[in-house]
## 1
Amino acid sequence: MERTLVLLKPDAVQRRLSGSILTRFEQKGLKIVGMKLVQASPELAAKHYDVHKERPFFGSLVSFLSGGPTVALALEGREAVATVRGMIGATDGTKASPGTIRGDHGLSVQNNLIHGSDSVDNAHLELALWFCPNELVSWTPVDQSWIG
Ligand code: DAT
Ligand code: MG
């Protein structure tokens, strides 16, 4: 079982899409093991996007991610990292396939609603950045054996 970090970024919260996006993950069979509303500081946003610190859009990206509340989710399931990335779709909403979260809800590159970790290693790092260990809950859903 893998765990991955998902952020419903401030545009998703402002547009009241948090619930419908979360429903997609629940319906897929992914298990919520962490969930909270966070007002990210610019420092947290900058750490989260540290890999992009040399890019010209970095300052704007940090302002965006710290510009309102974000829903932070830790999701668990088989192949959770790649599964979530597939459900999210391409970075640019205009290129993201219909049926994906970005493909169904956005036209922007920066304001693209959602983040998902891109590798198991980055998932570990990002989960540690956004959650304290005691905020992650290990539990077994009653239908687990039917989900796989
Ligand atoms: P992803 O979120 O699909 O993993 P990424 O890691 O390449 O995409 O970039 C991180 C975020 O930075 C992305 O969600 C939106 C923003 N971004 C990426 N490329 C951009 C660009 N050319 N202009 C503005 N923002 C960009
Ligand atoms: Mg990325």
Note: Residues 52, 57, 61, 91, 109-110, 112, 115, 118 surround 2'-deoxyadenosine-5'-diphosphate (ligand 1) (CB under 6 Å).
## 2
Amino acid sequence: MFTESMTKILEAQAIELPSWAFGNSGTRFKVFTTPGTPRNPFEKIEDAATVNEYTGLAPSVALHIPWDKVDDFQALKIHAENLGVNLGTINSNTFQDDQYRFGSLTHVDKKVRQAAIDHHFECIDVMDKTGSQDLKIWLADGSNYPGQVNIRARQDRLHESLQAIYERLGDNQRMVLEYKFFEPAFYHTDVPDWGTAYVQVQALGDKASVCLDTGHHAPGTNIEFIVAQLLRLRRLGSFDFNSRFYADDDLIVGAADPFQLFRIIFEVYRNGGFDEDSTVAFMLDQCHNIEDKIPGQIRSVLNVQEMTAKVLLADLAGLESAEVSGDVLGANGILMDAYNTDVRPALADWREARGLPREPFDAYRASGRLEKIAKERVGGQQMGWGA
Ligand code: PSV
Ligand code: MN
């Protein structure tokens, strides 16, 4: 089913896992704990490595500072490498400290802005130790009431703060700026959309680009258009994949709307996001509030792989000729044929040929690992969002 060039893309596919997906998470109503939840960043890495072991799709793990702060990052790096994975994106956190109540990089008080900048310097120091390439910045900055802040002045301060952070980046390091249209601020957000993120990173230089979190758009937004546009502008740095029904739900990617995931990945493919020289990073940003975490992550990366395989089947030449000749239904039919093809048996064969389980999800469940870690990981404090 897959040609050599398709297999090459499948072979190279790498989806970074968020360390926080393995810790307990929840809503403002309740955080449920689960047996076997990691008690430290080392155990989180072990769980991420398990996902990679079963799928061959997840060779790196994103860390969140300070949640994943350890005394010896070198030791964490070696631990990861021994388990066959690397430490990836470093996520900063300026949303859990009292001083950031009215903002961080945009705050009206220079001292608070400097504290937020210093936090990012600390993250870059961590990157130097872990060998991470990307610094991901998502800000909770914004306001709740009209008149509360000077919106424009905050854009100016944001630029200045980002500039200071940008200047600290090493030659092989990048900054990715993530946008989100609301929450925790409800009236305005300082980086609400791709346009604002683009304007801000464009003003910095080539090492800054945009992170597109699929859950951070208003309902009905044509996300695949944004993907095509950012790739065209060469500023699509990374994806945070997840899915949503209502807000920033952080559910399993491809669970809410598989066809939307297909359309997004199609634009990635058509616009060079899978080319050998592409610099687009693919990550998950999810939380598993009620389901088991490791199998939740396994299902997630498999969903991305399955949609990618469907996309690769699209007859691009046929599509192009249907498009230029105005064959609306023919063009649409080509995409739908790809989407409606069942690629699962071919992917199972592909896995088997690489020494991976044909059905990673079932194989993990049958492995007894979940029961094993539940038995082993007793005592200590389970890690969770915010700890
Ligand atoms: C908050 O919305 C958020 O989910 C952002 O998407 C970040 O990527 C993530 O937290 C980690 O900081
Ligand atoms: Mn995100």
Note: Residues 91, 138, 178, 180, 213, 240, 248, 285 surround alpha-D-psicofuranose (ligand 1) (CB under 6 Å).
